[in-house]
């Protein structure tokens, strides 16, 4: 990531020199009196400097934009040492992401989605698969060198990790589960350190120091040998984390209060705060992202258990890093980080909805085939679920153990379901070490066989 261009000093009253020294260009300067550009983007100087009209004074033009932003900024949280008040304003991307959260990710919405399909366990099997995606992509974002397929295989078969990368994936998976299981708790220093311990213990304890805050100022964020972020001093870290916890635990959901803040916005600020403070020797990014999820779970947005934000962050790691630096280099204006994260969240929710729609359509089509072929009467509900999952490609291989866990049934029930599909000529089974692995024959071949 290249070093970003810091904004020039802001001129307190830019209009006076514009009127006195740039009369011929007053119109062009006045067109900049808006916090967003013509495409609705909240640009940092690093990006904006390539886009402003030629012939204008960059410092004056930037000061005009900053003038239009200052009046719309809302104080959010105090971070760092020396303490700085972080502020933000709502952008179109933030409004869109908040709307999508409210419409598509609440617990009530998930229940409706299941009822719409008619057989909720079909969707639940799909959702259980999606739980793994954030743990895997978050690990890959941190540098884990493994394919998504190999990572899913690792988690589905409950294999023991053989490398640091595999340990990282399992650790992240445990972190996500811990965040879900502890969603009703308040945020405390102990919860944060326990989350870190669960996520990194056993990977390289001398490097990570599981569950322990750093004890020196040597921990920095670097890129290609250059320091891009120097976290606040370790002195006072404990007090700052306690203050952060108190702020998170405070209720900001009173819509009639001037302090109202949507949970999504607050969760993203928590994500930023942990990344900015960098309280651990290593693994800070993983903890920051898992705490984002923890807060969304806490506030009733359980759909986020199945929405992998890191999948999209992984595709644009440079922009993810810059969104931190844009805030830090422009008077702790959180809008940059919030806007970027909200764009990612909105896309992730859209992807989740698209997956659901395809799932619903596929289930209806496949069930129609099962009825028409006469196969429907020959198989159990659990076998229909397994067939639907296999047909959609959610999972290509099945074991008795993972079917038992996904369908929450007895081991023998899962074994009978899979072996029954083998007897019907729909599935094959092969011995892999000490475990039977089941997979479906080509669906077109199955349909052709049962239609004939």
Describe the SSE topology:
Blueprint lengths: L14 H7 L4 H5 L14 H4 L9 H13 L3 E6 L4 E5 L3 H13 L2 H11 L2 H22 L6 H9 L7 H18 L7 H12 L4 H4 L12 E3 L2 E4 L7 H13 L13 H15 L6 H15 L10 H7 L1 H12 L6 H39 L7 H12 L7 H8 L3 H13 L3 E6 L2 E6 L2 H9 L1
Antiparallel strand pairs: 1-2, 3-4, 5-6
Helix pairs in contact: 5-17, 6-7, 7-8, 7-9, 7-15, 7-18, 9-10, 9-14, 10-14, 12-13, 13-14, 13-17, 15-17, 16-17, 17-18, 19-20
Percent of sequence in beta strands: 5-15%
Sketch the topology as an H/E string, one letter per element. Answer: HHHHEEHHHHHHHEEHHHHHHHHHEEH
Structural class: mainly alpha
Please report the number of helical segments. Answer: 21
What is the CA-based Rg, rounded? 26 Å
- Oligomer state equals single chain
What's the CATH C level of the largest domain?
Mainly Alpha
CATH superfamily (homologous) name of the largest domain = Fido-like domain
The biggest beta sheet, please?
2 strands, antiparallel
**N-to-C terminal Cα separation, in Å?**
60 Å
| Shape assignment | elongated
As for the number of domains, it is 3
Mean pLDDT: 86
CATH topology of the largest domain, by name, is Fic-like fold
């Amino acid at each position: 990531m290249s070093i970003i261009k810091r904004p020039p000093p802001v001129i307190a009253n830019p209009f006076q020199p514009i009127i006195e020294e740039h009369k011929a260009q007053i119109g062009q300067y006045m067109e900049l009196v808006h916090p967003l550009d013509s495409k609705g983007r909240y640009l940092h100087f690093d990006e904006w400097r390539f886009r402003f009209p030629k012939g204008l004074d960059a410092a004056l033009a930037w000061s005009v934009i900053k003038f239009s932003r200052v009046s719309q900024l809302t104080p959010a949280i105090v971070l760092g040492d020396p303490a700085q008040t972080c502020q933000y304003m709502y952008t179109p991307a933030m409004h869109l992401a908040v709307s999508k959260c409210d419409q598509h990710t609440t617990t009530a919405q998930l229940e409706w989605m299941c009822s719409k399909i008619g057989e909720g366990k079909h969707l639940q099997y799909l959702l259980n698969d999606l739980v793994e995606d954030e743990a895997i992509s978050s690990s890959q974002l941190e540098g884990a060198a493994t394919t998504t397929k190999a990572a899913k295989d690792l988690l589905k078969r409950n294999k023991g990790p053989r490398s640091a990368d595999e340990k990282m994936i399992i650790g992240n998976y445990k972190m996500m589960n811990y965040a879900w299981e502890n969603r009703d708790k308040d945020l405390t220093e102990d919860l944060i350190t326990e989350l870190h311990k669960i996520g990194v213990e056993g990977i390289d304890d001398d490097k990570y120091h599981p569950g322990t805050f750093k004890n020196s100022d040597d921990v920095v964020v670097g890129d290609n040998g250059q320091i891009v972020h120097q976290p606040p001093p370790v002195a006072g870290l404990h007090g700052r984390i306690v203050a952060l916890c108190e702020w998170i635990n405070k209720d900001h959901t009173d819509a009639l209060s001037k302090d109202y803040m949507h949970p999504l916005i607050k969760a993203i600020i928590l994500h930023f705060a942990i990344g900015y403070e960098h309280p651990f020797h290593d693994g800070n990014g993983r903890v920051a992202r898992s705490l984002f999820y923890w807060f969304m779970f806490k506030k009733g947005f359980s759909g986020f258990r199945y929405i992998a934000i890191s999948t999209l962050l992984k595709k644009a790691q440079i922009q993810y890093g810059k969104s931190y630096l844009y805030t830090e280099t422009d008077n702790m204006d959180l809008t940059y980080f919030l806007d970027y994260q909200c764009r990612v969240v909105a896309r992730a929710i859209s992807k989740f909805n698209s997956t659901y729609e395809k799932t619903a359509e596929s289930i209806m089509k496949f069930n129609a085939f099962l009825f028409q072929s006469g196969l429907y009467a020959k198989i159990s509900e659990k076998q229909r679920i397994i067939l639907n999952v296999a047909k959609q490609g959610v999972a290509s291989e099945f074991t008795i153990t993972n079917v038992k866990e996904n369908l929450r049934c007895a081991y023998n029930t899962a074994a009978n379901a899979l072996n029954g599909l083998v007897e019907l000529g729909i599935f094959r089974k092969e011995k892999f070490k000490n475990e039977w692995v089941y997979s479906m024959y080509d669906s077109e071949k199955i349909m052709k066989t049962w239609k004939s």
